[in-house]
Specification:
Layout lengths: L13 H7 L2 H4 L3 H17 L5 H19 L12 H13 L12 H37 L4 E6 L2 E7 H26 L1 E2 L15 H8 L3 E2 L3 H6 L2 H27 L7 E2 L18 H24 L14 H24 L1 E2 L1 H9 L7 H10 L4 H17 L9 H7 L13 H6 L9 H16 L2
Parallel strand pairs: 3-4
Antiparallel strand pairs: 1-2, 5-6
Length: about 450
Amino acid sequence: MKIRDGRLKKPLSKSFEHLNSSIGFDIRLAKYDIAGSIAYAKALKRVGIITDKEMKSIINGLETIQLEIENGKFVPNPENEDIHMNIEMRLLELVGTVALKLHTGRSRNEQIVLDERLYLIDALKNIKSNLKNLLKSLYLKAKDSRKIIMPSYTHLQQAQLISASHLLLAYYRAIYRDHQRLLDIEKRLNEMPLGSGAVAGSSIGIDREFLLKELGFISLTKNSIDAVSNRDFIIEFEFILTSIFLTLSRISEDFIIYSTQEFGFIILPDELTTTSSLMPQKKNPDSLELIRGKSTKIIGNLFSIITLLKALPYSYNRDLQEDKPGLFESIDWVLVCIDVMREIIDGFSFNDSRIKEVIKGSKDYIFATDIADYLVQRGMPFREAHQIVGKIVSFSESNKKRLSEIKIEEYKKFSPLFDKDIYKVFDPVKSVNNHDVYGGTAINRIDEILNEIEEELKNI
């Protein structure tokens, strides 16, 4: 039995049948489609469309199909187009013609958007859980790295000294924001569309408040046209996944650079690296490179759904069948890559001796801003101090001297404000602790933030 047989005389062409079928990817929505159908059967009984006996028969049949899916015994038929029709046709086989009453007053237009919302509510829980584990790992690594002092970089050039913990906490903040975005989207996902019909709303007086409670939603959609054609909840969800991947990709880029022999700031765990098929000395950061590479797919999937929707007229159009493959792919990869990044954070270590070597090799230029601050504290305008320190750096370069090796007499030629205490600025710990503002890299401020995060993690 095919729904097209009443109106259309000829069967689908084979090529269009292949194009028309979505069961290859929407099979993963089966659990949610069955949940929606069980709730709908109960609602149909409440308005007198089916009897109590018929309702129980339909529900038993749907539960049997659920068990078949879980046991791998459910074999979908591509000729039945999608997950909705595959379940309906299997129900017909199991319980007979009473199955044909289940679709009374209901459209696949509302079914699919219900299934997608239920699916995303579940996916959101898993992603939040993975993100929380990553946040915990970043917190613990940051806690252990407070006293490791390393260069920070702007324009990929050495900037100022920071605690290594400060960098890890930057990653933490970005991931935490994405976790908060997932919390925020929950209220928009939790709108129940069932009862919207194909476009105009149910014509059989279905009790939408009953369906809302049965399916565990928070609120009802307020417009049937919007309910079946809206996919901005998918756009928003995919944006959050893209934002997560952008952060993971940027962390990956940092770690790839820091793990090179030229930097050598971090040591990656063996179990998350590979070697070369030709060069036996290689320890390649493939896990990080793959995370960085996967981000292109997730960004592309976001643009795909935006492009899909941009010119669709209201209400439902079959183009919306294509809203799922990219969404499913993005969710699958974000779960994997968050977990891999957590393993990387847990497993890597800072190479403190190499970091100290690099700081020493900077010729003290990394303390240049500290010297400017020294002059400012003695009354010199910052722009003037900036120029003078620039000249001192040029002098250091020309004379092949470290800034700490320039004699006090030479410093005084640049400004009489210099005194013998200038050499105290070349203390890495002092340099870090000078940034004593909330959110700064001073160790006491990092401890302050770590204490806040400890409480923060209890509530997410």
